[in-house]
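ESCALATION

Customer reports they have been waiting on this structure for their group meeting. Please prioritize. Original submission:
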Amino acid sequence: MSSVTTISVPIRILIADDQPHVGEALRLALRDEGFHIELAGSPSAVLTAVAGDKFDLALLDMNYSRDTTSGREGIELIERLRVMDSDMAIVVMTAWGSVEIAVEALQHGAGDFIQKPWDNAALRRVLHTQLALGRARRTARKQSRQDEREWAEAKEIQQGMLPRMLPELAGFALVAAYRPARELAGDYYAVLPLDGKRALICIGDVAGKGVPAALVMSNLQAAVKAYADEKCTPVGLCERVNRILCENVEPGRFVTFFCGVLDTETFSFTYVNAGHNPPLLARPNGSVLRLADGGPVLGEFPDWSAAQGQIHLAPGDRLAFYTDGITEASDADGQEFGETRLADLMAKNRAAGARELHASLMAEAARFAGGTFTDDATLLVIAAL
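Update from on-call: job pushed to the front of the queue and completed.
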């Protein structure tokens, strides 16, 4: 037979008073509480004790031998203790008629005060209340640190779902980047080789932000990866992804999605736009086309259907795939960056290489929004060489 032994850690209280008999009287008043009590006779002794060990509560006199009336030593001590341990409970002791000092102490970080001479029952009640609050603060801070670690891990996992490197496609240069508005994002993009000459280009945006959107994005990423094979067609892929989303995602968590198959041998691009922001194609002559052929968003309509579009590319063409975090970026007056401004920039910079064009578009959108995107922002640029 086995048994479990629970080790109880005593509550540690530090009592600070420059009159030894006061400290001993307080120790005596608390003898039945099961506290581990240490005494300190000066602010420096208090700081030394807290630097060397962790206490649950500090019971501090406000006046010491160097300054017995103003309480300044006590205030300074509270401020330094709060820097050393922001969660430790602090209760101060003041003489009758020194309520102003006690109020100032509360403003600087003390939780409550006791007036001398004290009532033992009131003393115990105040200490137990402040100890409970201190434990709650420590627990919350510990949970917060755990949450931060979990958020960091989730962010790392999600970033791992996005391409670490874009594949090399003969005759084309590709540059992509995304800027999440929060730790977790609802944007998705991928460039997946299907065979030696064809590649699948995808970009999507989940309705909403944060954790719910990130979970749907992971479903989208897994479905695309599962169905991106050599026989893949844009409309066939969308039909399959839509079916999975309709079966597994709660209503309202729809996805705007664009996917296309780029044939690097024929320079053809066959695509479906499922309610997504139309990618823009800038031609060398300055014209800009919107790739809008397709159907409704994914994840809302089980009987989803759409028509495929097709374009033929030529050297000098520039394609920009983006999410609405780019076009809906707003300036201080609430005006949106907009598709028209993006198209104008595409035409103006149509002779630039993929990297230069990508940098220009992102920089202009960020500058317009004052350096901050309020929604996840993704941009993929493809240049036909």
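Sent to customer with the following note: Confidence is low (pLDDT under 50) at residues 1-7.
Escalation resolved.
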